[in-house]
Amino acid sequence: MNIPDDLVELGRIGEPYGLKGWVNVLPSSEEPDVLLKSKQWWVSRLPASDGAAVRRAAQPKFEDLVFESFRVLQSKPHSSRIVAHLEGIEQPELAAQFKGRRVYVSRARFPAPAEGEYYWIDLVGCEVVNVQSQALGSVIQVVDHGAHPILVVKGAADQEILIPFVAAYVLNVDTQAKQIQADWQDDY
């Protein structure tokens, strides 16, 4: 089975839900639309042979994980979580074996974002330039600040620059060219 090279982690499986083998998923974001719309999930697990060594690591490396593909028969929001029925999982005892595993979806299967909206994963790796065409660095992370997202930009000499992802400062985003224009200076 070919594992897509564009998998994005979108949640973690918790306790089983109900008596028919449904899984309970804690989404990684407050807007779990991709999980709800995707009909194929990739669920990670540790390899059976050397899982103990990997388990001792604080966070297993992506390349150490084994992925299994599951067709999503049904999914729906439930409180702050998502509950889903995955093909082949029909009993709560079997669903319990998935507790703690991570859920991934291929980036290619994400629904197209609305005009002017972006998936955070698409902003990571973008080069940020200011209105004077000065390179500020590249986006290494997008964090939720509560009021608005913040771009974490790694600049020269590993300096981190934090830029609010709001229209007042972010003037243009071109995810195809992997470039963001911001009204920002490197010494702010």
TrEMBL record:
Keyword field contains Acyltransferase: no
Q: Does the keyword Transcription regulation apply?
A: no
Where is this chain primarily localised?
cytoplasm
Write one Pfam family the protein is assigned to.
Answer: PRC_RimM
* Domain annotation Ribosome maturation factor RimM PRC barrel: ranges: 120-187
Q: Which superkingdom heads the taxonomic lineage of this protein's source?
A: Bacteria
Swiss-Prot/TrEMBL keywords = Chaperone, Cytoplasm, Ribosome biogenesis, rRNA processing
The places in or outside the cell where this protein is found are:
Cytoplasm
**Family annotation (SUPFAM superfamilies):** PRC-barrel domain (SSF50346), Translation proteins (SSF50447)
Where in this chain does the record put each RimM N-terminal domain? Answer: 10-108
What is the documented function of this protein? An accessory protein needed during the final step in the assembly of 30S ribosomal subunit, possibly for assembly of the head region. Essential for efficient processing of 16S rRNA. May be needed both before and after RbfA during the maturation of 16S rRNA. It has affinity for free ribosomal 30S subunits but not for 70S ribosomes.
Subunit composition and interactions? Binds ribosomal protein uS19.
UniProt domain comment: The PRC barrel domain binds ribosomal protein uS19.
What does the sequence similarity comment in the record state about its family?
Answer: Belongs to the RimM family.
Q: What is this protein called?
A: Ribosome maturation factor RimM
